[in-house]
Design a protein that fits this description.
The N and C termini lie far apart (112 Å). The protein has one domain. The radius of gyration is 32 Å and the shape is elongated. 42% of the residues lie in helices and 30% in strands. Strands 1-4-7 form a three-stranded antiparallel sheet. The chain has a three-stranded mixed sheet with strand order 5-6-8. A two-stranded antiparallel sheet has the order 2-3. With 219 residues, it is α+β, with helices and mostly antiparallel strands.
Length: 219
């Protein structure tokens, strides 16, 4: 057997092996999936943000887009998104303006305090019932728009809930306790000061209730 014949036999055998392997792979449903990702760090910023309230929300978001074909026929596309989110509400302390009292007393005067805000939304999205039109198909921009609108709806829902109120109460009482532990008084803007006084009275009443119950229990 000469060299040419040997080479031809090797080529035929290799081709048959590749064909057999492809046939077996297609039959068994094995696919070769490759994924590549590139992570770029754009910038690092120093922040002083404090989380004071955490809430969990579920939302069903329905998206529908109507498209006219030749100004006569409707070609709708729609999708349903179920979103489950963890929302963190707190404060950006970079926006706080404060000073020490001018009379020399150990009083921390808060001149301006920011409103509570959503610091982060961690959301898990799942798409259901995706129905594209005959010509009105979904694009990458459509999916991005749907997710942005669903996230904004979750943000609005969180700010309309009790989370901002809870965060306000938490931060005011935390600052009061921190100042008191160092022998300082805390002076907030008028509206916030009234809320703090009411919260202090409520907390003190709740703390003294077990003592009153214990004292009033017959022996």
């Amino acid at each position: 057997m000469d060299f040419l014949t040997t080479a031809l036999l090797l080529l035929v055998g290799t081709g048959a092996g590749v064909a057999l392997a492809n046939a077996l792979r297609n039959r068994s449903g094995i696919t070769d999936v490759r994924r590549d990702s590139v992570i770029l760090l754009e910038r690092i910023e120093k922040v002083f943000k404090v989380v004071m309230a955490e809430g969990y929300f579920s939302e069903i978001y329905n998206y529908q887009d109507q498209k006219k074909i030749l100004y006569l026929l409707n070609d709708p596309k729609k999708a349903m998104v179920i979103a489950k989110s963890k929302v963190l509400v707190g404060f950006d302390f970079a926006k706080v303006r404060f000073r020490a009292a001018e009379n020399g007393e150990k009083t921390l005067v808060i001149e301006a305090f920011p409103e509570p805000e959503v610091l982060s939304i961690d959301t898990d999205y799942k798409f259901y019932d995706i129905q594209a039109g005959y010509l009105n198909h979904f694009s990458g921009e459509d999916y991005t728009k749907i997710l942005d609108e669903a996230k904004q709806a979750m943000n609005d829902r969180a700010m309309q809930s009790d989370l901002p109120k809870i965060a306000n109460n938490q931060i005011q009482y935390m600052m009061y306790q921190l100042a008191s532990s160092m022998g300082w008084q805390l002076q907030l803007p008028e509206a916030e000061q009234r809320q703090l006084e009411a919260l202090k009275a409520k907390t003190e009443a709740e703390a003294s209730l077990p003592k009153l119950l214990k004292t009033g229990t017959p022996t």
